[in-house]
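assembly run, all chains below
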Amino acid sequence: AQSVTQPDIHITVSEGASLELRCNYSYGATPYLFWYVQSPGQGLQLLLKYFSGDTLVQGIKGFEAEFKRSQSSFNLRKPSVHWSDAAEYFCAVGVTGGGNKLTFGTGTQLKVEL
Amino acid sequence: GAVVSQHPSRVICKSGTSVKIECRSLDFQATTMFWYRQFPKQSLMLMATSNEGSKATYEQGVEKDKFLINHASLTLSTLTVTSAHPEDSSFYICSARAPGGAYGYTFGSGTRLTVV
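ok done. output:
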């Protein structure tokens, strides 16, 4: 079965600094990969997704992620963080033939210092 | 774009009563919807997959008689927590598969259930 690991439970960055959130997955083939953001008490908003093709994926709000098959990783990056980016970030993996279900990582709480 | 409306956003109920949560796809037809449960500061755990016109598929460990799911139309799925107990208090989120590929998921804004 597929699994997702987000090693960092909490991350604090200063506004304007760069950001990288780590995500590692476990799956035998190429998975479908997603990053979602959740504000307190809210649902999830899709930031970006990778299905195939170019391994560097651009998303909304200035986020990007790079799929690295050799490292089984799909890290999320942003060159300059804004205070409004403070939220919970979830990496998720979906697999073919799995009923199109998503498996989520445990999440990374991002705090932005002004 | 694809919008999923979830109602209510918050509900408080007494122990032993039942609560119904609605998940509606507003501008698209959703043949499949998913129900998740999220404990404080934890990830989303898939409870069940709801398919229009057929029985829901529950994940291992989820009591289907306690968490009743109905997907009677292409735009509405409901989750009913029956005989609720304080341990059922949680954040419940639905998602629907929007057009544009198998993984065009859209999430509702969630329902905070508190059982007292």
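The mean pLDDT of chain A is 92.

The first strand of chain A starts at residue 3 and ends at 5.

not gonna interpret more than that til we talk
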